[in-house]
Design goal:
The complex is a heterodimer of chains A (about 450) and B (about 130).
Chain A lengths: L8 H27 L10 H32 L6 H24 L2 H7 L17 H24 L4 H17 L9 H36 L3 H22 L12 H11 L2 H16 L8 H24 L3 H7 L3 H30 L8 H37 L8 H7 L1 H24 L12
Helix pairs in contact in A: 1-2, 1-16, 2-3, 2-5, 2-13, 3-5, 5-6, 6-7, 7-8, 7-10, 7-11, 7-13, 8-9, 8-10, 10-11, 11-13, 11-14, 13-14, 14-16
Chain B lengths: L5 H20 L4 H13 L5 H32 L4 H30 L18
Helix pairs in contact in B: 1-2, 1-3, 1-4, 2-3, 3-4
The chains are: A mainly alpha (about 450), B mainly alpha (about 130).
């Protein structure tokens, strides 16, 4: 590790993994509730489990992005972090605020939480993924601004590279777009429209810039390919991301009451959205094929390649599957969306955070470059278990989605009610739950791999 | 006597992989005919690297046609247009099969760009033999 201040990334990564475990446990609880409706009722109702599952995902990914930034920016800028103390203070603020919010979700009814936290003063609660109390949202903004200040000051005082600048643009976009969560118009159409400014422009916009920057950093370090080559790829990828992603937001505007021209704009631009993911896959494989060194951390390279492939499949292929408006007319809000959401989040964002953790953690724990062979083998097992499990989760949900659409939306007068259809597709929910337990096994192995000792693997070329 | 230009060979290999992907993603049929013509015209003068990619992509494209069109059509026709099972199997099969073939093409393209040979698993002939 080149700079001492990079160590502040460690608590962020540990918190991220801890919250990831929580997310998966709540995912399994929900999966069970899909087939056994009163499981853990009234202690953890389905809507609460879902809220905790999705909110934990967002929070732990943010911890991961922050940790990644604190690790890679000093190295890219060739200088110590502007303020490691601020980074640690923000870590504790974010962790405590996040934990209190989750406890709030679980301990009191949501309406009471809204009342206790003074939601009526500035109403922002009650919207999917943005359920956090207003006071928590304000906390997130403070943490994000402090974090951005720290990273920007570090970049400004040191070397400016394409990787750090793309990362900074992505992080700035992340912070700015979150501000739309404070705008809560009474008009439901406007409400939904601006809600997508946060949700879509995060995951299909600025988060992709963060993904590209982290992936480029890991590939520069592990392959030894010239920085210039990797940076050129990065430019093209982020350009395509923004060209397709911004107007691609239109695929969320088909059925919320916006003008009809969004059917065309949304269909055309979102049909192009797989392109940056396709390019990312070619990029990752190309860099690994042209590598000039054999980095001892094989697990990190595997995660990097896996990120590109799974992001292409989950975000690209499964996104395209239901993005054209004539198709989306039938598929929106069905299990097809859930299938896409699971694989896209796992492929694009979960895996990139695990990639940087896999790359950085051995060095932060005192190794020269990589864990022992034994630890890496276990980590690679965890990679395959989680990835294969996610593929099956996606396939089972896709099958459930096709059946759901057919029975619920295509039958004309014979169309069946929602809950009847849910009973009919329960088999796929059981299968998905089984795959979920395999995923949890992979995650446990991932955590255990950090505690496997042995002699460090050395560079071979 | 002129020596073969390695850049030209790499370009030909990349071209073959791109046409394979184009056939799957953008111009089905047209890109295949283009790839076929490229094979006919350039196979006799291509280097082992370019020849390997030309042969691989031609064989993989033929397999892609066989795997994607008749089997998908059969699963719909056997189940009937009104059968939910037929559609479920057909959509899942097509999506998984098509995405896998594209991913193999991506790996092939990356190999060609790096000047390395590549054999499509299961569907690609051994390099140096006829497809």
């Amino acid at each position: 590790m080149q700079y001492q201040s990079q160590m502040v990334a460690k608590p962020y990564f540990i918190a991220a993994i801890g919250l990831f475990i929580g997310q998966i446990i709540f995912g399994l609880i929900m999966g069970w509730q899909y087939v056994v409706g009163d499981f853990l009722f009234p202690e953890i109702p389905f809507n609460v489990a879902r809220m905790v599952h999705t909110n934990l995902l967002i929070v732990w990914l943010l911890f991961g992005f922050m940790g990644a930034s604190y690790y890679l920016v000093p190295e890219e800028s060739e200088t110590e972090l502007y303020s490691p103390k601020l980074a640690l203070a923000l870590f504790w603020i974010f962790l405590v605020a996040g934990a209190l919010t989750i406890v709030g979700y679980l301990a009191v009814p949501y309406a009471t939480l809204a009342q206790v936290t003074g939601n009526e003063l500035l109403p922002t609660m009650g919207r999917e993924f943005l359920e956090q109390p207003t006071i928590t949202k304000i906390g997130i903004v403070i943490v994000a601004l402090g974090f951005l200040f720290n990273i920007a000051m570090t970049v400004l005082k040191g070397r400016k590279t394409t990787v750090s600048l793309v990362l900074l643009i992505g992080l700035t976009g992340l912070a700015l777009l979150f501000l739309f969560s404070f705008y809560n118009p009474h008009n439901l159409v406007l409400d939904k429209m601006f809600w997508w400014y946060v949700v879509h422009l995060w995951v299909e916009g600025v988060w992709e810039l963060i993904l590209g920057a982290i992936l480029a950093f890991v590939l520069i370090k592990t392959t030894g390919v010239d920085r210039e080559v990797i940076e050129k790829w990065l430019y093209v990828i982020i350009a395509m991301t923004l060209i397709t992603g911004i107007l691609g937001t239109g695929h969320h505007f088909y059925w919320i009451g916006t003008p009809e021209y969004w059917q065309i704009i949304g269909s055309v631009f979102s049909a192009l959205e797989p392109i940056p993911f396709f390019m990312m896959t070619v990029f990752a494989f190309n860099m690994v094929n042209q590598r000039r060194r054999e980095h001892p951390n094989k697990a990190a390279v595997l995660w990097a390649l896996g990120t590109a492939v799974m992001a292409f499949l989950g975000a690209g292929v499964w996104g395209f599957l239901h993005t054209l408006s004539p198709v989306n007319y039938y598929t929106h809000g069905s299990q097809i969306t859930a299938a896409h959401g699971h694989m896209a989040f796992y492929g694009a964002y979960v895996m990139i955070v695990l990639t940087i953790i896999s790359y950085a953690m051995p060095m932060m724990r005192g190794r020269a470059a990589a864990n022992s062979e034994k630890a890496q083998v276990m980590e690679m097992w965890s990679f395959w278990l989680m990835t294969v499990a996610m593929v099956f989760i996606t396939l089972f949900l896709t099958a459930a989605g096709i059946l759901q659409i057919y029975m619920q939306r295509m039958g004309g007068d014979a169309a069946q009610p929602f809950m009847v259809v849910q009973e009919n597709i329960a088999l796929f929910y059981w299968l998905r739950e089984g795959a979920g337990f395999v995923f949890l096994t992979g995650l446990i192995l991932y955590v255990v791999s950090f505690f496997v000792g042995g002699e460090e693997r050395k560079e071979t070329a | 006597m002129s020596t073969p230009d390695p850049n030209n060979d790499k370009r030909l290999a990349v071209m073959a992989e791109m046409l394979y992907l184009c056939n799957l993603l953008l111009l089905p049929g047209i890109a295949f005919i283009w790839l076929l013509l490229l094979n006919i015209r350039r196979s006799s003068v291509a280097s082992p690297l370019a020849l390997c990619h030309l042969r691989q992509t031609l064989a993989a494209s033929i397999w892609a046609g066989v795997l994607l069109i008749p089997i998908t059509a059969l699963s719909i026709l056997m189940g009937g247009y009104q059968s939910v099972t037929g559609w479920t199997v057909a959509i899942l099969y097509f999506t998984v099969c098509h995405a896998s073939l594209v991913l193999l093409g991506v790996v092939g393209l990356a190999k060609a760009m790096a000047g390395l040979s590549w054999r499509y698993p299961l569907i690609g002939p051994v390099c140096g033999t006829r497809p």
